[in-house]
Amino acid sequence: MAEMTLPMEGGCRCGKLRFRVSKPPMLTLACHCTGCQKMSASAYSLTVVVPSDGFEVTQGEPVIGGLHGEQGRHHHCDWCKSWVFTRIHPEQGFLNVRATMLDDPSWFVPFVEVYKSEALPWATTPAKHSYETFPEMADYPTLLGEFAASRG
């Protein structure tokens, strides 16, 4: 597996929307929920959770699609409509970047998988931790610590 290096650059399919991640990821995950299946046109979506203050859009202006509510907003390229990142409750200090939008996602492996309750029967990942829905809030400090330790 390749090593992750910072900063990480990425962008949408057409290249009109570009971003930079300047702080280490907090967690990596795969989400099997039916919403992510429909948004990604795949069995699951792949996410790199990054600190909000370690992410910036460097080119283009994202538009909101998919989730439009207070619980979260999906950000897309206005031209190619690629789903690039999601802001969930901005006050929480993190956002979710679609792993495949990184220029080099070769280091990515999901550490956690969520919503196994909605997974397609054949869809599997190498995630170390698996949850039927989301982890309990009390589980996150341990997951974040374990993920950080696994990255060195």
Structure description:
The protein has helices at residues 34-40, 140-150; strands at 8-11, 18-21, 27-31, 45-51, 55-59, 63-65, 73-76, 83-87, 94-98, 112-114, 129-130. The chain has 152 residues and is mainly beta. The strands form two sheets. The chain has an eight-stranded mixed sheet. The two termini are 14 Å apart.
Q: Count all strands and give the number.
A: 11
**Structural class by helix and strand composition:** mainly beta
Strand content: 25-35%
The major sheet is characterized as: 8 strands, mixed
- Helix/strand order: EEEHEEEEEEEEH
Mean pLDDT comes to 92
Number of helices: 2
Please give the order of strands in the largest beta sheet: 6-7-8-9-4-3-10-11
Distance between the termini: 14 Å
Low-confidence stretches: none
Q: Percent of residues in helical segments?
A: 10-25%
> What is the global morphology?
globular
* Radius of gyration, whole Å: 15 Å
In short:
The chain is mainly beta and 152 residues long. It has helices at residues 34-40, 140-150, and strands spanning 8-11, 18-21, 27-31, 45-51, 55-59, 63-65, 73-76, 83-87, 94-98, 112-114, 129-130.
